[in-house]
Amino acid sequence: MLTVRDAGRRLDDGWIWRKLSFRLPPGDRLGLVGPSGSGKTLLLRALAALDPLDEGTIELDDRALDDWEVPEYRARVTYVPQEATLAEGTVWGNLQAPFAFGVHQGKVFDEERAAHLLRGLGRGASFLEKESGDLSGGERQVAALVRSLLLEPRILLLDEPAASMDDELAAGAEDLVSDWIEEDGRERALIWTSHRADRLERVTSRRIEL
Predict the structure, then answer these.
(1) Quick check: 62 and 3 in contact, CB under 8 A?
(2) Taking the model in full, what pTM does it have?
(3) CA separation, residue 108 to residues 41, 100, 112, 202, 203 (Å)
(4) What pLDDT score does 27 carry?
């Protein structure tokens, strides 16, 4: 699926990381670890085609990132940042909005699946009517994670996706992501960053340290 070869990223006058190579095969659950400032977010953003590498290459299905149309690539490789980005309006509107984009043509918003995913995170129908501006940090992460799962990417890049959740809610998020992989492990994979070693032990099968 995803292949990284000799990747490097500079910041100011020094290399954050360099000569970084790894593969993310189907079914893989990769944990990305490292101290604050080690460039975990920079790597995920590069893998999501949001920031360029300073050296090295990224390939999806043996096709160089530069050969993909960016929207087409991002429909397959989805980045979920720690600080969830939501538009003004209700949670319901935020979950539906991406399905209007041309890159998701052919995908249909599944109301029942949305409700099922939210129930797995302890959220009922009333949550859908909440305004995005009224959500807590953990609730914003809930909405962002569910939105990403509904779009059915092949690869999820999860940057501290449960950092603002309490332990019970975070456990639900871990279960949802694990179930998502198990539904079609031949076509899906994930990378998850967390400062919580116990969380990575539960949700990932191997780890890379920056």
Answers:
(1) yes
(2) 0.94
(3) 30, 9, 11, 31, 28
(4) 95
